[in-house]
Amino acid sequence: MSHAKASVTANPCRARPILAILLAALFAVALAAASVTAARAEADYAERAQALVAPYIEAGLFSGVILVARDGRPVFRRAYGLADREWEVPNTPQTHFRIGSLTKAFTAAAVLKLAEAGRLGLDDPVRRWVPSVPEAWAGVSLRHLLQHRSGIINFTALPNYYDQIARVDHTPAQIVALTAGDPLLFPPGERFEYSNTNYVLLGMVIEAASGLSYEAYLRETILAPLGLKETGYDDLTVILPRRAAGYRRGRAQWRNAVPMAASSAYAAGALYSTVDDLLAWDEALAGPRLLSDASRAAMFDDRGTGYGLGWFVSRAFGKQSDTKPGAKTSGHRVYGHAGSIPGFLSINDVYPDDHLTVIVLSNTETAPAQKIARDLASLHFGHYAAPEAIVLEDVILDRYPGTYRLGPRAFLTVAREGKGSGLTARATGEPAFPFVPESDRTFVSKVADMRLTFETEPDGTPTGLILHRDGRDRTGPRVTEDEAKAVLAAPPRQHREIAIDRTRLPALTGRYALGPGVEIAVTVEGGRIFAQATRQPRNELVPEGERDFFLRGSDAQITFTADEAGRVTGLILHQGGYDTEAPRRPEADGPTPGLGPRAGSPASVKGSN
């Protein structure tokens, strides 16, 4: 023992390498253990994510590709369903999808690149680059266009857009001309209102400032430098390998989506991509590879509107704001955008502080893409709680199948699931959703924010139900299948425009609470009345009565309600066979306007297309 101590003391340098080797070995072991732990956590997440998505697949609600990435590396990447139903070709992670309005982030980045090069300024008036626009748009800047604060009407909200305009090729100038004759909805910069026309104009600005076509500038300045070989402008005349076809549900079967020319979406929504390319795109925007720090800061600065430059900016999984419906005052920061184009839905959500990305690309119009994306993020953050099912006896489950009336032309058909202890429920014109029991009378959907509560007699016989959906309860009595068929077989009422006293229209203006975080804003301009739901296009209301209006090219109608003194109290939205009441929000600047005694009688009950 004494000899060993003397030896070490005599050769201190010899002990240091041994200690270093020991520490290195311990570090390697710890690193390996951490790696194994991380791998297990990723495997566990992937397994739970697959279980979360499975009910959507079983219900036939989703077809497409999903990718969840942490620190730029996929932790869940799966393809589902068919890219081509006619040839039964499956989707793969390499499948190309039309991404719709996810295009706007690319357009915004292209404008920022031109600004960095000194080719344009974000506060330049649009008329500097597109001189053909109306004089009334002289106050509209490029920043207004980027942030949807221009006041220019959205051309995709025109009544004949999907039936006629979208089906044929248009030049950008022809698209802009569709709304150039209409007045601005509000002075530029006054408020946010989403309009695809803004980004068509930005595409024209890019071409004018760069001297290249929109497609060429995007390819040479963004796509090629970032190596995004699977992203491009969707020219339908070009053979594109692994291109997904788009589908929709109609009359309880799959149908091809209505045709849409890429040029009718242009810089607002004409790109295609894959999940891997979109992940690479998100990663490029997180660092200095594409944009300067100043440009990236501008891109994600919403200036209080909830929309930056090509991205929605918000918080998720936080406390609800008391001042702004739907806003969050805490939680995880998220930059995201949705894309919706005939046959396709897409979501790209980035949680910058958590370095988490969730991408959902679907080639069906019925896919609940937003819910899937948010639930997958919630699962990653540990907030997600799947509904816990209980097992009920057949004698209880067999009580509930039948038909329930939810609206003038809306029914819910409840059936046994066929296996297990659940039910399915299918609303008129929609696919069937699976439900699992929470109790002997309450069932919750595994794939949508819906809950069924059955009303029963003392002996358990159901007499009706309550459907909780989108934050609203709808009550429906049980009816016979023949009664439902008779109602649906009757032709919908035809609508006819009539002349009314338009000086009375201002009494109808205001904001009407349709549901949690959703309201309808009613405005009057130039003797015409318009309605716009939260984050939806604005539509003109056509009078068919003093208080009854319909929308051309849509099954929606609105009836305004008033009290005995003629004060406007709310409206009823008739759409999809449902009647939805929306009370009028109190105005801060004065009393509720009155319709007058003539229009103050009780509202008539009317059907819906």
From TrEMBL:
Beta-lactamase-related domain: residues covered: 51-371
Taxonomy of the source species: Bacteria, Pseudomonadati, Pseudomonadota, Alphaproteobacteria, Hyphomicrobiales
Peptidase S12 Pab87-related C-terminal domain span: 396-468, 497-574
Leader sequence residues: 1-32
Superkingdom as given in the UniProt entry: Bacteria
InterPro entries: AmpC-like (IPR050491), Beta-lactam-related (IPR001466), Beta-lactam/transpept-like (IPR012338), Peptidase_S12_Pab87-rel_C (IPR021860)
The keyword Amino-acid biosynthesis is annotated on this UniProt entry: no
Bias (Basic and acidic residues): 467-477
Protein name, entry field: CubicO group peptidase (Beta-lactamase class C family)
Region of interest (Disordered), residue spans: 458-477, 577-609
Keywords: Signal
